[in-house]
Amino acid sequence: MTAPTLETKYVFTITACIGDVVTAGETGIGVRRIIPIIGGEVRGAITGKVLPFGADFQTIRPNELIDLEARYAFETDDGAIVYVENKGLRFGPVELLQKLKRGEPVDPTLIYFRTVPKFETGHEKYRWLMQHIFVASAARHADRVVIDVHQVV
Predict the structure, then answer these.
(1) InterPro entries this protein is in (predicted)?
(2) 71: domain CATH number?
(3) Is residue 97 within 8 Å of 90, Cβ to Cβ?
(4) H helix or E strand, kind and range, residue 116
(5) What separation in angstroms does the CA of 107 have from each of 8, 100, 139?
């Protein structure tokens, strides 16, 4: 017997609006940055709004590899609250990553930005989010992060 083939299907896009970056400085393992999540929207198989709290906690390694861990929540249009933990990494040419840090535009296809979002909710309609694995491809812009979420089927 063989294992099932892995496939993914697009489910929804989270656009997380972000605030000003707070830097805690060099911690010995890299530069710690905290980026507030101040709102946004969810569009696709689920629709709703990103709630105005939470943050992306980043560690920028000496080679500019960025470890990310975002924690936030969204509310669906029908009132369900969904908690999100989204871990991943961003990497690319150093000069392009430095442009992103300065808030300058960079073609998202030139940056490797992938995450693994996990969801929690007590709302029965959305329990399926807790029963599957998801992967995402993301793009960083000056004022937002756009995350295309795919379900592993």
Answers:
(1) UPF0311
(2) 2.40.160.20
(3) yes
(4) strand 112-120
(5) 24, 10, 9
Q: How many structural domains are present in the chain?
A: 1
Number of residues that make up the chain: 153
Residue 87 lies in a domain: yes
For residue 2, is it within any domain?
A: no
Query: What's the pLDDT tens digit per position in 39-65?
Result: 999 999 999 999 999 999 999 998 889
Residue 68 lies in a domain: yes
Residue matched to tokens 């004022």: 143
Residue 131 has what DSSP assignment?
S
Task: Categorize the per-residue pLDDT at 103 as very low, low, confident or very high, splitting at 50, 70 and 90.
Answer: confident
Q: Which two tokens stand for residue 28?
A: 């010995």
Task: Note whether residue 1 is domain-resident.
Answer: no
